[in-house]
Each structure stands twice: as C-alpha cells, then as structure tokens.
Design a protein that fits this description.
alpha+beta, Pemi-like Protein 1, Chain: D, 3 helices, elongated
Length: 105
C-alpha cells in the first residue's frame, strides 16, 4: 500500500492511519529512518530500556541473593524431563498434602 504524504515544517510527515494499522504502529512507538537508494525507509523498532533506578537494582539484587541462598540451602524443585513427569510429581505432591491435611483433622 502506498500513500502520498506532505512534508511539513521541520521535516514532519504524518503516517496515514491505514499504514500505521497495517504495520502495527501506535502512539509513542519508535521508527528507524534510513536512506536506501534515494528513498527514505521508516522501520518500526522496539527499544528495551535496560537501565534500572538504584531502587530497582537493589530490589533485583535482593531477589537474586534470596534465590542463591535457596539454591545453596537445597530449597529447589526437582528437574523434570517431560511434562508428564512433572504432572506425575504434581499429583504425588498433592496426594501427600491431602493425606497430611486429612490426618490433622
């Protein structure tokens, strides 16, 4: 689909709604502009913000430290080689829990 758009002051152009919908662009999305063989090509881009605030970094580090402590203390789940093995283990654990709760009553 092609569309004719007018270049405004400061080089601004409006991408028609039909084109934005067609490529999945929404308000605030970023596009990369490049020149290819005398044409301007706009390509939608996803940018991942990899920076964390100091508070976020402390929270992440605390969770990682807790996970490391759990692993060192042996508080980890068994590794399963298939989903059916996982389900079998889940059913056995549920049966143990059910039996334990029945004895308490």
């Amino acid at each position: 689909m092609n569309a004719l758009v007018k270049v405004q002051r400061k080089g601004q152009v409006t991408i028609p709604t039909r084109l934005r919908i067609l490529v999945g662009l929404a308000d605030g999305d970023l596009v990369e502009a490049s020149a290819e063989e005398g044409r301007i090509v706009l390509t939608p881009k996803v940018v991942i913000d990899r920076e964390y605030t100091p508070a976020q970094r402390r929270a992440i580090d605390a969770r990682l430290a807790k996970a490391d402590a759990d692993i060192k203390a042996g508080r980890v789940s068994k590794a399963f080689s298939s989903h059916s093995e996982f389900l079998d283990g889940l059913h056995k654990a549920a049966a143990k829990t059910s039996a334990r709760n029945t004895r308490r009553k």
